[in-house]
Amino acid sequence: MAQFTAPLHVMRFVFLFVCYNTIRCSFHQDLIKHPTILVVILARNKAHTLPYFLTMFEQLNYPKDRMSLFIRSDHNQDKTITILEDWVLLNQHKYHSANVRLDKKSEVAYSTEKSPVEWTEPRFKHMIKLKEQALNHGRKNWVDYVWYLDCDVFLSNPNILRLLIMEDKPIFAPMLKSLATYSNFWGGMAEDYWYKRTDEYIPILERKEKGCFAVPMVHSCFLVDLTRQASDLLTFNPQNISGFEDIPEDDIIAFALSAASIGMDMYVCNMDIYGYIPPPVDEDQQLELDFRQLLSIKLEMLVEYPEVPVSPLLEKYTPALPAKDKMGFSHQYLINLNRRPDRRERMEKSFKLLGLDVEHWSAVDGKLLNDSYLQGLGVFQMDAYKDPWSKRDMTYGEIGCFLSHYYVWEDIVKNGYKEVIVFEDDIRFEPYFREKIIYIMKEAKELTDEWDLIYVGRKKLKNADETWVEGADMLVNVDYSYWTLCYIITHRGASKLLAGKPLGRMVPVDEYLPIMFDKHPEDEWKSYFSPRDLKAFSASPLVVFPIRYTGEEGHISDTEESELIDETLGASSELFDEVVDAKGAMDIELGLNGLTKDEL
Questions:
Q1: What are the beta bridge partners of residue 473?
Q2: Predicted structure pTM score
Q3: What is the pLDDT of residue 589?
Q4: Which of 64, 299, 300, 591 would bridge with 413, disulfide CB 3.0–4.6 Å?
Q5: How many CB atoms sit inside 10 A of residue 458's CB?
Q6: 296, 64, 35: which is closest to 145 by C-alpha?
Q7: How far is the CA of 340 from the CAs of 240, 344, 421, 426, in angstroms?
Q8: Listed residue (492, 534, 332, 324) closest to 421, CA to CA
Q9: CA gyration radius, the chain
């Protein structure tokens, strides 16, 4: 096919036309004022989230003189109003206007309320009244948008308003990250108007499909375009909606049906990570659970951001960090490469939030290893080993990873630690991590005769045949697995792994462990080691996961994405028995007997 080439003068004209219009549009954008926004903040018993919420709200990259505030608070049993008073006093002058009513005289509970998290009919009616007032206030003051914003929404993206307004939707919400499969939108609505899970929900939630999607419900953080004529008919009051029967006394359901009745579609947008929101607390639960979910959200935010910000003004209201302990373990290790200080910093911040006293253990860096050094240690790849997927030899990164864990096992034996937990530095914590670990340990001690190792984070294979430990809720008999993200190991377990003399017949550490508990599918590999009597189990569900998976944006592997070993390290594992020294053999033997050198 002949290639078309435009004449030079035509190309110049197109270039100048594009440049002129780009400059013209940019110029006019600078002259056009930003849309006006009424921000609706309704707070009750949110003293634990307000310092973070208000700090991130302050940091929004949007002209404050184009924003008005509508703030209400009542029926509190904490310092919600005190925090709001401090913040409003210092900040209200920055905004176009502030309509604030903080009711200190209201009772701490509604008349029929059994707990602060219960949604009774009087509470729903009061919420409907406040949201309806805010909507009418926006109309009366000719604002362009009303933004309903819950006080436990953490707006981590300061450009959220600019990004969303550009989408030009009638009612729209940023998709907020949360715990498990919760978010601030519904994928479907049942015939009785309550929540219905649909096939479209998860792809949007997991951002497998990106864009703005029409959905039947958005809540907790959404904007309403009041410049559209149909918006005059929007309402939160079920009594004002026709065409539907038996509408529940629920503000968000009524608003969604109101929008549907006048053809104003709701959209959720997931092109970016805009912020976070904890799941709601069920009515039969206590407010204390909301505090723990805040901790889980803060841990999740540390995956993407260096910190959860809080202003100096509000810092005094943040919950105190828990005292550090070892969760009942003899010791806790964090394996981390010295050239990864960012990972160490994130993990140390996580440990502070969790109240964990963890030793930083400098990992062996595969990039610094060379053949002569490894041969001096007696490190040789197993003759029969080839990576199951790529059929390659080991990498120096995988050897460094193995040695890092190996030296931890040596330290366990040397110090006579009874039970320890080992963390790698590229992990994220599931909600209620501490509570789950304590429960897992309780089950292990009560329901198993003996145990050597418990996976806390790993890659379970799809075809794994794993049975529950009899009577257990969170413990299974583990099958062949990948990864060593986090595990609990005993003194005896570490001793068994050392006694296998793995350095001279090395495979990746996540292949070695299944070999030693005799669940590896490669019989030839297993034949290199005897006995294979490591008693291993796994948490189920797992309580630790990787930050990112292979193929995801930002994923980096310091083990697999490193240089392959030289042929000399895979030449012959028979050399191992000639180079292992007497000291190493003595250490292993002492470990098996449960003794240290000093005790001997």
A1: none
A2: 0.84
A3: 39
A4: 591
A5: 22
A6: 35
A7: 59, 7, 21, 10
A8: 332
A9: 30
pLDDT in tens, 523-559: 999 999 999 999 999 999 999 999 976 555 554 556 5
Phi, psi of 309 (to 5 degrees): -70, 150
Beta strand spans in 337-388 (E): 359-362
The pLDDT of residue 319 is 86
| Distance, CA of 579 to CA of 315 (rounded, Å) | 58
Q: Is 382 within 8 Å of 528 (Cβ atoms)? A: yes
Which uninterrupted H or E stretch holds 327?
none
Tell me the pLDDT band of 286, cut-offs 50, 70 and 90. Answer: confident
Phi, psi angle pair for 147, to nearest 5°: -115, 110
CA distance 550 to 543: 20
Close Cβ partners of 12 (under 8 Å, ≥ 6 residues apart):
none
Q: Assess contact for 399 and 512: CB atoms under 8 A.
A: no
Alpha-carbon gap, residue 512 to 281, rounded angstroms = 43
Backbone φ and ψ of 266, nearest 5°: -100, 140
Instruction: Give the pLDDT confidence of 312-325 residue by residue, as tens digits.
Output: 999 999 988 999 99
Task: Over range 138-165, report the average pLDDT.
Answer: 96
Q: How far apart are CA 415 and CA 406, in angstroms?
A: 14
Token pair of 243 as six digits:
């065409």
Quote the tokens at residue 24.
């013209």
What is the rounded distance in angstroms from the CA atom of residue 25 to the CA atom of residue 31?
10
DSSP 8-class letter at 562: S
Per-residue pLDDT band for 16 (boundaries 50, 70, 90) equals very low
| Residues 58, 317 contacting (CB under 8 angstroms) | no
| End-to-end Cα separation, the chain, in angstroms | 85
Please tell me whether residue 381 adopts helix, strand or coil conformation.
strand
99 near 67, Cβ under 8 Å?
A: no
